[in-house]
Amino acid sequence: MIKKSRVRAVALLLVVSCPLLFAVDDELVTRYLTAANNEYSAGNVAKAFAYINNVLSSYADELVPQNVEVLSETIYYGYLEQLKKSRDWKAFAEVKGKLIEFPYVSSERIARSVKVLNTYEAQDAAWGGGSVPIAAGGPDGAVQGSGAVSGSAAAAAAIYNNQLKSNVLELQLALEKMKAEAAAEAAQEADAQNAEIQQELLATQREAYERALAETRDVAGSSSRVLLLSLLILTGLILIVFIAVIVNVLINLRNTKSQNDKFVETLKAVSEMTQLNMAQRVQLDALPPLYGADSQMRMIGSAMKETGLPSPPITEAEKKELADLAQNCREIGAKIDAATGRKNNSKNVAEMVFKLAQEMGVAQYEATLFFSVAMVYDIGFLEVDASLLQATSLTEDQKFEIRNHVKQGLAALSFVPEKYMSVFADGVLMHHENMDGSGYPEGLSGSRIPYIARLIRVAESFVALISRRNYREIFDKESAVAELRSSPGLYDSEIVDVLETII
């Protein structure tokens, strides 16, 4: 379990970096964020809750920064835990209202706390609006604090608690009995209605049979040619229905084949730019490993492992440096999307990388750094002829020029401080490597591929599948994940598993 001091330190980092990281220039919002963090750190969770709601009201739903969501979730959860002790149902109602207003703040642990508080509230309501009395000092009636409770008082409290438990049990038994009786009555009513319906149906069938029999007798006395004509008409109707069924089956089979063909075409489109033969790979200049011969230094992604990353920023100058870097990456990401014609692609990929990293246990500082890398992973496209990025068909030389954007991107990272360069280089250079070694530029495989590159590989392909493209239809999220799973040689299966849990 994370210690409270560590939580407060992370929250402080979020608050300090939020205004610069996400370009929120509103001075009032900045003061609210600082006040929310200070009050939460001082234990004044209710005040922190009020301040963070002012912050959330200042953003549109689609523009709320990820770090603000994290701080909001922390404060909401702390406030709910406090309400479990105070049983302030008016405040609880306010929290539930805010969760409806800001649904993106909710989390699994918040949902559990709300469920528990709903139960407490129902119990209190059953006892006349007040909280259920318990013995002083806790559920066992043990004496706590400086005051002493007499033996008789403790015994009385124990008897009272036992009586409460007995009353609750009796209420539960009575409720179960009422439910059983209601179910039995409903079953009896249903049986009676069914019997009545069956009787009416039998009577109707009897009348129809008698009417048909009378008509048949009349027809039998007229002419055999009329009977033959009726049989021919009936046979024709049956034949028409049969033909309609056959046609419907054929249409469904054709649609299924067409859908399968679309999946195959999509898979080819996703992997076309990521797979090279050996001759093509040699054309790209060989590049030395960024971490030397030790591949373990590429296993970035956990505070419990040797990552090769610089230490988290401590001084104000270091924090400003990281925040300025993130803002610069956001601006460059917008330029990349304008050049490629992929609206909000860099932002969507970066946010998905951030969420995946957090879900997989990556520390907050590393996840924030990964976010910045993912904003500029395609920076090499700024050096590619714009006409090639919009072309519908490409020659082999033109395909090579586009694939070479990873090398050109590496040369465009001059704005990155030296201590962060290795991570940025891994993300920009290696995000087209495949797990089976079929990618480029180095043909790495498995765990030899840097962790940040594997995250970007999965996030980029998922965002592409659920986004509009000229050559195919949009996938829904579940179909997109299934499409990624169908290509285990391209994507890290562990990351794909985590992706399925957060979409």
Element order: H for helix, E for strand: HHHHHHHHHHHHHHHHHHH
In CATH terms, what is the architecture of the largest domain?
Orthogonal Bundle
Q: With helices defined by DSSP (H or I, 4 residues minimum), what is the helix count?
A: 19
CATH topology of the largest domain: Hypothetical protein af1432
Helix content: 55-70%
Largest β-sheet summary:
none
Distance between the termini: 26 Å
Mean pLDDT level:
77
- Judged by helices, strands and strand pairing, the structural class is mainly alpha
| CATH top level assignment of the largest domain | Mainly Alpha
Polypeptide structure, described:
- There is one protein chain.
- This protein is mostly helical.
- It has three domains: 4-126, no CATH class; 135-141 and 152-222; 272-502, Hypothetical protein af1432, CATH 1.10.3210.
- It has helices spanning 4-21, 27-41, 45-57, 66-86, 89-101, 108-126, 151-220, 224-271, 278-283, 316-340, 345-359, 364-375, 386-389, 396-403, 405-411, 421-430, 451-465, 477-485, 493-502.
- The two termini are 26 Å apart.
Task: Give the key terms.
single chain; 503 residues; mainly alpha; Hypothetical protein af1432; 3 domains; 19 helices; flat
Question: What layout of secondary structure does this protein have?
Answer:
Elements: H1 4-21, H2 27-41, H3 45-57, H4 66-86, H5 89-101, H6 108-126, H7 151-220, H8 224-271, H9 278-283, H10 316-340, H11 345-359, H12 364-375, H13 386-389, H14 396-403, H15 405-411, H16 421-430, H17 451-465, H18 477-485, H19 493-502
